[in-house]
Amino acid sequence: MNLKSLGILLLVFFSVQTLFSSEYADISLLIDERGDVLISGIDSSNTLLRGEKTPQYTSKEGKYWTINFSSEIAYETFIFETTFPKGAQINYIKTTPNFRIDEDQGNLKIIGTGTNKPITLIVQYEIDDTLEKKYSQYLWIFLLLLLGMIFGYGVSVSYKKKRVKAFVKGEYENLNERQKEILSILQEGKITQKKLEESMQIPKASISRNVKTLCLRGYIEKKQIGNTNYLSLKEKE
Q1: Entry pTM
Q2: What is the span of the domain harbouring residue 121?
Q3: Which residues pair with 29 in a beta bridge?
């Protein structure tokens, strides 16, 4: 082997060795609304990746958040992507000169690259919670309306039952046991005559006779819709 060939082999060897021994990183930083950071991707130095969220890179003062992230070593080449929580607004950035701000489904991102230097990222941001507050107000209004409706319904039912009980008690002695039972069932609300028959389990003729008597005395009212008879208590003025 001549000297020229040997020189070429040595050059290739040292080039390959340099390539595989160089430090590089291709990482992603995901920040949640609590300031916890999850780092994932490729790091040849194995000093950045943790596999779990950590709060050590962020701090908060008032409504302003700050992420202060830097690597311990200089990388021959690196690329990073930092994703901020929804509603985040960036006020200040200090990082590699080669960066851009992007957006993905409402999340701001900072994507940066660099060579022969450590990764440095300092960002001050705030989270706009206007929509969250608005939704919270709407939720409270909805809950108050719902509680009002439930309370109003309860008062209405309670008042109606008191009127019915007082109404029945006043002339209770004038009714037979089956008529009293019919009124007791109708206190729960409107019912079809067929359902009343099934509930009381007495002959149809007996039901019809007692229903007719209660209608004539003004205790209940019967309305026919199609082929179905509906029975309900008749409230006195």
Answers
A1: 0.49
A2: 3-131
A3: 39, 82
Q: For residue 215, what is the domain's CATH number? A: 1.10.10.10
Query: CATH code at 97?
Result: 2.60.40
Domain count, the chain: 2
Report if residue 21 sits inside a domain: yes
* 33 and 103 together in one domain: yes
What is the arrangement of strands in the sheet containing 98-104, beginning at the earlier edge strand? 37-43, 24-31, 77-83, 107-114, 98-104
Residue 149 lies in a domain: no
- Cα–Cα distance for residue pair 48/77, rounded to 1 Å: 15
Average confidence (pLDDT) over 203-216: 89
Q: Are residues 48 and 126 in the same domain?
A: yes
Answer yes or no: is 145 within a domain.
Answer: no
Indicate whether 20 pLDDT > 50: no
The reply to whether 105 and 51 lie within a common domain is: yes
Q: How far is CA 230 from CA 186, 187, 192, 211, 234, in A?
A: 11, 14, 4, 11, 12
Q: What is the per-residue pLDDT for 4?
A: 58
Q: How far apart are CA 83 and CA 66, in angstroms?
A: 14
In whole angstroms, what is the distance from residue 41 CA to residue 49 CA? 7
**Token couple for 42:** 């490729």
49-98 pLDDT per residue, tens: 877 899 999 999 999 999 999 998 999 999 999 999 999 999 999 999 89
Give the C-alpha distances (Å, rounded to integers) separating 85 from 47, 158, 216.
25, 50, 72
Average confidence (pLDDT) over 146-156: 80
User: Which tokens hold the place of 24?
Assistant: 């590089």
